[in-house]
Amino acid sequence: MEAPTPRSRDMTARWLFLFLLGVAGSAVLQVHGQADSLGFISIDCGLPGKTGYIDSTTKLSYATDAGFTNTGTNHNISAEYVTPTTGKIWRSVRSFPDGLRNCYTLRSLVPGLKYLIRALFKHGNYDGRLNRWPIFDIHIGVNYWQTVNITDGDMPVIAEIITVISGDSVQVCLVNTGSGTPFISSLELRPLKNKLYPQSDMSQALVLATRANVGASANLRYPDDPHDRIWISLNVPSWMAISTTKEVQNSVIDFFEVPSTVTQTGVTSINSSTPIIFFWDVTSAKDSMPGYVFMLYMAELQHLPSNALRQFYVKLNDKPWDTKPRGLKYLETTVLYNEKPDYASQQYIFSLEATTNSTLPPILNALEIFSVVPTTGLATTTHEISAMTTIRDMYQMKKNWMGDPCAPKNFAWNGLHCGYAVSRPPTITGLNLSSSGLSGNISSSFASLKGLQYLDLSGNNLMGSIPDTLSQLSSLTLLDLTGNQLSGSIPSGLLKRTQDDSLTLRYGNNPNLCSNGNSCQPPKKKPRSMVVVHIVVPIFVVLIIVLLSILLLCMRKRRQGTTTNSVRPQNESIDNYGHTSLRLESRRFTYSELEVITNGFQRVVGRGGFGKVYDGFLEDGTQVAVKLRSESSNQGVQEFLAEAQSLAKIHHKNLVSMFGYCKEREYMVLVYEYMSEGALDEHLRGKDNNTRTLSWRQRLLIALESAQGLEYLHKGCNPPLIHRDVKTSNILLNTNLEAKIADFGLLKAFNNDSDTHVSTARVVGTPVYVDPEYYATFQLTSKSDVFSFGVVLLEIVTGQPPIPNDPEPTSIIQWARQRLARGNIEAVVDIHMHGDHDVNSVWKVADTALKCTAQAPEQRPTMTDVVALLHECLELEDARNHMNARFYTAGSDTNLNNYSQYDTGMSTDVSQSRTALEAEHFDRVPRMSDGPAVR
């Protein structure tokens, strides 16, 4: 056979892949249903009608997508892309020109089970817009799966993920990213045993990059593989193919269950002095490069004589990937894999190299490569999703309500407002359906939204009575029913709540609605005399108050005289900017307003020395944190006003912003931006079992952002400010884990810009974090904040509390210095990072922390110095070329290689000097280039 030209190579590869996925379109049987007895779900997307078929090659039943999604448009691909070998699933597509996110719902799943989910795409110029290929994302539930990049109308793309499904259903969503209309050809789901692919768990999923059946003559899937994994045949002319008809056994401890039909074939290099090499380039990306896990399958297929030896090393980027050379057992599969992700900078190169004693070349039978994606996004609770789905279907909403109602946050449904608490599922707190064309009765499902704080159903055509169940929504503070056709009486439960001011009820412009339980007649007008009384009395009271205020002001001015060193009363102290507390540049709330905002101070989201912090919502739905001073608080009026003034005057992206304050009678309250991910200490040590472990890069960014906030206080304010209470519990994180300094109750300013220190009457702050020089001299400097921040850095590196109990309670500074003095950074690094860090970067942060906590202030760096050092640490981490991973073997031996996967365009490029197989990644793993080569 002649060597194929590049074009013929492409066509050959496409033919092979289309043959793999079912070529016969005529030999099909009509079937109905969504899943077969194996638990498989197979959907032919865009197939017209409601009747499916049985694929003649795999004997698997395929259903139409009518029961899985209710949006999108069916299309057939252009005739020029259809040949007699084109599989039936490729001939139609469903596209989604409307909406940001459109989803398929796969039901009847087993909660907690692991599944393989596969999405297939072939454009086929279905829309007649030749050479305008789309790029879009796909999500699994609320988590990003991968980006689909269509580059050719005839080139199929497959996205495959192995993930644990927590509920009895899962949604696969196509997300429009602004680069073309999403579409899909087929969607498949296959259940897996939970022991398989242990790298996939509740926190992360595996996205397929490569699955190769090395040395095989044809592609392979179900029924040869009972899990219906698709194994692409891979051959290179310079390799020697070997095979056996005997069954190849897997090891007793088997985490992958590779079929015997896969491992019955393999390849060796031409001789023992020639290695087998796989390599590919990783394209640069804005985000950090994904981690990869590898599975290399090897089995000895030849019964070797006593004088023969097959033994070889496996190397990754010229470094040993395993600790010792391996020999294989006859007809038994050995698997080499890494338990946690591996990272490389620009290129992966895997080589199998025979040892000097080996008489035979290395062997390779099959290989899989996956990238790792996090699946830690929290979905809305099941009962709220069910309620919103019922509401959507009942009113036939046209708002493109698809996917999870609240998550991800930037995909929340139109008209919904959700609350996002740390490590808890999002909750629907507000629902605005005003003027949405609703008709019929008020759905009873609204009462299932237990966290609902406001519900606006105004301007619709709702009829019938108001459900009494709405009064059971204890968090509801606003219910707007104006402008409908409601009838009957207002339920007594709602009337009672309006009377005790726990609910604002609006119900005007409902002609047939009774405002009380006895009569629908409008209330009688009050006597004219009573109206006059209601007008005159408040005016008289206001005049009396104004006169008394003027009198008191005159008396105060006379007492103070004209001296410039005037002393103001405690509730009107002058701040360091020359402004009084009565002239804050932020909103002054009344206590009654705060009761409405917090729903009666119902939900506590934090506690501190000042008091409790409550969750609240402003009138426009903005979520806020409301900090109420407790009676036992050590913070006095002066400190409260200092914090209020500071938050009102200083503005920086890494300092929390204040919306307003309240100083009314004994109540002192601050209202500031809500930081959904809580305090840093909760993430370092875990507030509960659901708290996510921060990666080293995330910790570096948090440290850098916090340092920038402090640097602004020291250098960007005039006069400079000292925080005085820097600690991990005062570093708050938002949804994106961006850090902001909080708690300014102890803030202190220099008298002028040239001062070097400020004297205080007493030492304030938190033990361990407080500068020892400040303890001794009562003289506060910017280096006092530097000392405290050094303690924060040690906590970030170690994950330890400020006073570790290891083995006896001691300062974290002393604890770290003792261990670092031995030169072993791993002795102090947080074990929860599992070694996933650049060692030099960690050393540099630890060294910076020790410099910050030096006994003498003059030996400590400035915050500007610290910011520069942390930038360098982040650059080191980003430039990391290799990640030390632990490797495990199953069977008698192990090995690995690299090659691209799922590709219809696998082209074989043979040259005199090097044999290379360059394969464009068929599944378009994000940030991967044209794929690997082998030699």
UniProtKB/TrEMBL annotation:
Keywords: ATP-binding, Kinase, Leucine-rich repeat, Membrane, Nucleotide-binding, Phosphoprotein, Receptor, Repeat, Serine/threonine-protein kinase, Signal, Transferase, Transmembrane, Transmembrane helix
Subcellular location, record wording: Cell membrane
EC number: 2.7.11.1
CDD domains: STKc_IRAK (cd14066)
Biased composition range(s): Basic and acidic residues: 917-927
InterPro entries listed in its UniProt record: Kinase-like_dom_sf (IPR011009), Leu-rich_rpt (IPR001611), LRR_dom_sf (IPR032675), Malectin-like_Carb-bd_dom (IPR024788), Prot_kinase_dom (IPR000719), Protein_kinase_ATP_BS (IPR017441), Ser-Thr/Tyr_kinase_cat_dom (IPR001245), Ser/Thr_kinase_AS (IPR008271)
Gene Ontology, cellular component aspect: plasma membrane
Residue numbers binding ATP: K627
Chain residue ranges for the region called Disordered: 911-935
The protein's name in its UniProt record: non-specific serine/threonine protein kinase
Organism: Triticum turgidum subsp. durum
